[in-house]
Amino acid sequence: MNYGYMGRTNSSQKHVCVEFSSPNVAKPFHVGHLRSTIIGNVISNFYEAAGHRVKRINWIGDWGTQFGLVSLGLMRFGDVELLKQDPLLELFNVYVQINQAVAAECGTNSESMSPTYQEGMALFSKLEKGDEHIMTVWRMIRDLSLQELNKMYQRLGVHFTHILSESDYHNRTQEILDRLSQKDLLLYDSNGVGYVETEIKGVGRATVVKSDGSSLYLTRDIASALDRQEKFSFDHVHYVVEQGQKAHFIKLVSILQKLGVPWANSSIDDIHVRFGRVNGMSTREGNVIFLRDVLDEARTRVMDTMLKKNSTRASQNDMEKTADIIGVASIILQDLKANRVADYTFSWERMLNLKADSGVFVQYCHARLNSMMTTCGVQPSDDIDISCIVKDDALMNIVLHLARYPEIFEYSLDSLEPHHVVQYLFKLCHFINAAYTSCPVKGEPQDLAQARLFTFECAKQVLQNCLLLLGLKPLDVI
């Protein structure tokens, strides 16, 4: 994609891996995965705009003990037809029911005391050994979930270059253990649990294999990281994951350093691109929050706003599509407008405020500029009278702000902080709106009209560049 920015020269081109989204297919797609998806997509866009080679990796959580429980839940409570109609909802309902059964059985004791939990673990053990029946159930859960996830990625405007799965690495545990043993890094406790001593204060040992020899998430992460390095030889690797997983990544990076992976010597804050939590996100029905419900509600609320304004230029057929694009922009910009490590409170009112810093605000600004340019009756020209711009404060505010775009972009890339571009975008739209009111184009003398139109054209180009960088589709008509 052309983001309208060339950035650094090819001589400094790097090969970069950005792992983001990474949902667990046997669990609901929650807000943390939404944030990872949005932030990771934008960081990937930044690198591509600067001329780097980027691998966008979605690391699917399709393995682990939860599959034993969910498989058992489907056998006890599942409805095959409901699973086909709405896989994510039915899987979630089954997930809740089976965990309620475990909780009821174990009471105040450990969940491992529950017969249901033990039965689920037995199913997962069969899965790891390749039992054909349980493998068939697992494939159905995985495939139906991925189909639904892909629909949401399309709505969000997100794409990946590689879809990798935990299941691809579950049988490579011994290979990892052998590599660790060769470097005298693998130790065992009295129960037969294998671990690596990180020697990092407050972190301690990193368990890499259970006493029964089954794999762990960390082991599969190590296997995947080593495999990617052998295939792609990355210069930089970023895992876009919420900050609650910091201990996991400290352990992962510590082990990779001991195994001699070059990029693992980077700062942990560079490798683990962490972010804060979202508070207050709910739909009109409340209860459990699915991403699909949030996207649908955003579209509905935008359509309500468009109908109330009674000024939409979009046809009835295009209105729902337009509202969906604006709704997605509103969700993404509210998520990105603050420092990524800060928690924030979700607000429908702020998100859809036409006069405040929001997705609605910037999309209306872009569409307004497009409308003015197509109806002003002035022929665009690069040969303009600069003095018409220099002596106008409103136009000069735009010009000076446009001049800062490369600086803002470079800073955002270096810090992996999208909010700098978002705040730049909001300020640009405010400058555009102020000039739009005080600097009309239509009906003005030719020199003045062409100078103003040229300024607005440049502003629209940079506005569009920002939207594309942030993973948003610029709307010409609303």
Describe the fold and architecture.
By secondary structure, the chain is of the alpha/beta class. The chain folds into 2 domains: 12-278, 3-Layer(aba) Sandwich (Rossmann fold), CATH 3.40.50; 290-469, Isoleucyl-tRNA Synthetase, Domain 1, CATH 1.10.730. Helix content is 57%, strand content 8%. The protein is built from 19 helices and 10 strands. The protein has a 5-stranded parallel β-sheet with strand order 3-2-1-7-8. It has a 3-stranded antiparallel β-sheet with strand order 4-5-6. A two-stranded parallel sheet has the order 9-10. α2 packs across α4, α2 (65-77) crosses α5 (115-128) and α14 (359-375) crosses α18 (419-438). The protein is globular. The model has no long low-confidence stretch (mean pLDDT 91).
Q: Mind sketching the topology for me?
A:
Blueprint: E1 15-19, H1 31-49, E2 53-60, H2 65-77, H3 80-85, H4 87-106, H5 115-128, H6 132-156, E3 162-165, H7 173-182, E4 187-188, E5 194-197, E6 205-209, H8 217-232, E7 236-240, H9 246-258, H10 268-271, E8 272-273, E9 278-279, H11 291-309, H12 316-336, E10 344-345, H13 348-351, H14 359-375, H15 387-390, H16 393-403, H17 405-415, H18 419-438, H19 446-469
Parallel strand pairs: 1-2, 1-7, 2-3, 7-8, 9-10
Antiparallel strand pairs: 4-5, 5-6
Helix pairs in contact: 2-4, 2-5, 5-6, 8-9, 11-12, 14-18, 14-19, 16-18, 16-19, 17-18, 18-19
Catalytic activity: tRNA(Arg) + L-arginine + ATP = L-arginyl-tRNA(Arg) + AMP + diphosphate
GO cellular component, one term: mitochondrion
Pfam families: DALR_1, tRNA-synt_1d
